């Protein structure tokens, strides 16, 4: 599968798209942030 064919989401912290990763395969619906760093910095934007 090509990377361009994978599903994408927009990171609420960086406002940029990120692509599905294999490690998120089981819970892609619950993934909100592109990285651990963005997840930790979410308190700054709330």
Number of domains: 1
State the total count of DSSP E strands: 2
Number of DSSP helical runs: 2
Helix and strand run: EEHH
The rounded Rg comes to: 11 Å
Overall pLDDT level = 89
- Which stretches are poorly predicted, pLDDT < 50 over at least 5 residues? none
Distance between the termini: 36 Å
**In percent, how helical is the residue content?**
10-25%
Query: How large a portion of the residues is in β-strands, by DSSP E?
Result: 5-15%
What is the approximate shape? globular
> How do the strands of the widest beta sheet line up side by side?
1-2
Structural class: alpha+beta
Biggest sheet descriptor = 2 strands, antiparallel
Characterize the structure shown.
InterPro entries: UCP037205 (IPR017136). This is DUF2256 domain-containing protein. It comes from Algoriphagus locisalis. With 46 residues, the chain is an alpha+beta fold. It has one domain. Helices cover 20% and strands 13% of the residues. The chain contains two helices and two strands, in the order ββαα. The chain has a two-stranded antiparallel ribbon. The longest helix has 5 residues. It starts with 7 loop residues before the first strand and ends with a helix. The mean pLDDT is 89.
Concise structural overview:
InterPro entries: UCP037205. This is DUF2256 domain-containing protein. By secondary structure, the protein is α+β, with helices and mostly antiparallel strands.
SSE order and pairing:
Layout: E1 8-10, E2 17-19, H1 36-40, H2 42-45
Antiparallel strand pairs: 1-2
Pfam families: DUF2256
Organism: Algoriphagus locisalis
Protein name: DUF2256 domain-containing protein
